[in-house]
């Protein structure tokens, strides 16, 4: 492993991530809706004045939240079927742009910052709708439902015209802006970014060793995160743990607080994948 | 590091509220169950009193023979076994009749019943003795076991009637 150049390592990491995303897409594409159904179930029950039981929805939600508290939003970056589709669409868009020699469209950074608050509004709106018992009236508007139906091979979509339009707009957005949906609109992402992420495995950088004025990691980051100094602050809840910053850093400054993981990122990623699959199987996905 | 504490406190608050809510709902459900049982008990007691009063007034008005009353009773004295399907298997009971009245109901076997549920269901025995009839309501939440006991008692009472 010693004679692998950084460039090869970068390529290897890209393919590894792609492979993991495809595996999750094929074996458990429904985790994100299952977990969010848990959120909806809890608030529907409270709205009806009924007790909350440990249904499979709630179990998946709890397991996924605990996993995220420990490992960060690794699920979002590597396992979520919707996020994976977004990544692929974005890659295709970049390739097309290269082919026709056009510059990719970029959304202004201040707009991006403001847009990332929209997901909290969406989460609040859905939670309130569930609480008031009117959520069932939004049938036909959920782009996730259409997405899940398509994945399961159900094409009876005539009642879902608004949802199909929203889904197409989202895919367009995800093509233009990396992780458009995950950053700006995903209600499950809103839940995750509220969670306190433990600083054990989250990423930071040793800023004093950086090249003066270097912003490579922030520029590469799909969430525009300015990494905190190691151990001084927690990671932003917006981080998807895509780990692109690790590869882009010219001085290999980006790492977790655990020193042993440095250099063994691939093995650590595989451990996280195995753990996530096991947990989800136990939770009943 | 301030952020992580704020987020942690928020999370604990949310979980705490949901958990407290859940406990409250469960407590309320139990309280409602107890209340409805109590109401049924009071109903049964007043019915019994009314019946007793009726018998007393009839006694004084007509000063009837005691033997005649005995012959009017539906059941012949003795003990009678009855069985019926409960939740998991057969419930076997023994009904004791003395002086034409249901004096006692004993559960002889209920092997395949869930313990907690069957315990709840045995509440119907008191009701049966109070109303002197097997036409009583089941215990909510333990319908199958209740029906097992009720039907077993019914079978026993049928035998008591047939013996006359």
The N- to C-terminal Cα distance of chain B equals 86 Å
The shape of chain B is elongated
Largest sheet of chain B: 3 strands, antiparallel
The helix-and-strand class of chain B reads: alpha+beta
How much helical structure, as a percent, in the residues of chain B?
55-70%
Q: How do the strands and helices of this protein lay out in sequence?
A:
The complex is a heterodimer of chains A (285) and B (164).
Chain A: H1 6-27, H2 31-48, H3 56-71, H4 74-79, H5 81-99, H6 109-115, H7 118-131, H8 143-151, H9 161-176, H10 180-184, H11 187-194, E1 203-205, H12 216-220, H13 244-248, E2 254-256, H14 265-283
Antiparallel strand pairs in A: 1-2
Helix pairs in contact in A: 2-3, 2-7, 3-14, 5-9, 7-11, 8-9
Chain B: H1 2-62, H2 66-72, E1 78-85, E2 90-98, E3 101-109, H3 115-121, H4 123-131, H5 143-162
Antiparallel strand pairs in B: 1-2, 2-3
Helix pairs in contact in B: 3-5
Structure write-up:
The complex is a heterodimer of chains A (285) and B (164). With 285 residues, chain A is mainly alpha-helical. Helices cover 59% and strands 2% of the residues of chain A. Chain A has helices spanning 6-27, 31-48, 56-71, 74-79, 81-99, 109-115, 118-131, 143-151, 161-176, 180-184, 187-194, 216-220, 244-248, 265-283, and strands spanning 203-205, 254-256. In chain A, strands 1-2 form a two-stranded antiparallel sheet. The longest helix of chain A is centred in the N-terminal third of the chain and has 22 residues, at 6-27. Chain B is of the alpha+beta class and 164 residues long. Chain B has helices at 2-62, 66-72, 115-121, 123-131, 143-162, and strands at 78-85, 90-98, 101-109. Chain B is elongated. Chain A binds chain B through residues 42, 46, 49-52, 194-199, 232-234, 237, and chain B through 1, 3-5, 7-8, 10-11, 18, 21-22, 25-26, 29.
């Amino acid at each position: 492993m010693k004679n692998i150049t950084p460039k090869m390592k970068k390529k290897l990491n890209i393919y590894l991530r792609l492979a993991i995303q495809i595996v999750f897409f094929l074996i458990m594409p429904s985790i994100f809706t299952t977990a969010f159904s848990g959120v909806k179930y809890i608030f529907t029950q409270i709205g009806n004045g009924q007790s909350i039981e440990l249904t499979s929805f709630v179990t998946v939600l709890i397991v996924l939240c605990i996993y995220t508290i420990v490992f960060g939003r690794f699920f979002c970056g590597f396992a979520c079927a919707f996020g994976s589709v977004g990544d692929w669409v974005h890659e295709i868009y970049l390739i097309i742009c290269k082919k026709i020699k056009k510059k990719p469209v970029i959304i202004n950074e201040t707009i991006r910052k403001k847009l990332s608050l929209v997901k909290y509004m969406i989460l609040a709106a859905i939670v309130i709708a569930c609480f008031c018992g009117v959520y069932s009236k939004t049938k036909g508007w959920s782009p996730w439902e259409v997405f899940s139906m398509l994945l399961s091979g159900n094409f009876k979509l005539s009642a879902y015209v608004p949802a199909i339009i929203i889904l197409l707009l989202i895919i367009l957005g995800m093509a233009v802006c990396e992780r458009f949906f995950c950053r700006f609109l995903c209600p499950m992402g809103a839940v995750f970014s509220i969670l306190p992420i433990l600083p054990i495995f989250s990423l930071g950088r040793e800023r004093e060793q950086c090249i003066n004025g270097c912003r490579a990691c922030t520029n590469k980051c799909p969430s525009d995160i300015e990494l905190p100094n190691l151990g001084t602050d927690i990671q932003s809840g917006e981080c998807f743990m895509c780990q692109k910053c690790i590869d882009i850093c010219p001085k290999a400054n980006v790492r977790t607080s655990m020193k042993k993981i440095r250099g063994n990122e691939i093995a650590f990623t595989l451990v996280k994948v195995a753990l996530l699959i096991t947990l989800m199987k136990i939770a009943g996905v | 590091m301030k952020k992580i504490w704020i987020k942690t406190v928020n999370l604990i608050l949310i979980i705490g509220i949901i958990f407290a809510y859940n406990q409250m709902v469960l407590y309320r459900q139990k309280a409602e169950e107890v209340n409805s049982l109590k109401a049924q008990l009071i109903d049964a007691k007043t019915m019994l009193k009314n019946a007793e009063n009726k018998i007393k007034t009839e006694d004084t008005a007509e000063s009837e023979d005691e033997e005649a009353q005995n012959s009017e009773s539906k059941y012949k004295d003795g003990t009678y076994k009855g069985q019926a399907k409960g939740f998991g298997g057969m419930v076997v009971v023994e009904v004791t009749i003395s002086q034409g009245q249901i004096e006692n109901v004993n559960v002889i076997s209920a092997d395949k019943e869930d313990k907690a549920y069957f315990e709840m269901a045995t509440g119907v025995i008191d009701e049966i003795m109070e109303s002197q009839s097997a036409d009583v309501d089941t215990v909510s939440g333990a319908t199958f076991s209740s029906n097992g006991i009720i039907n077993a008692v019914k079978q026993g009472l049928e035998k008591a009637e047939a013996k006359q």
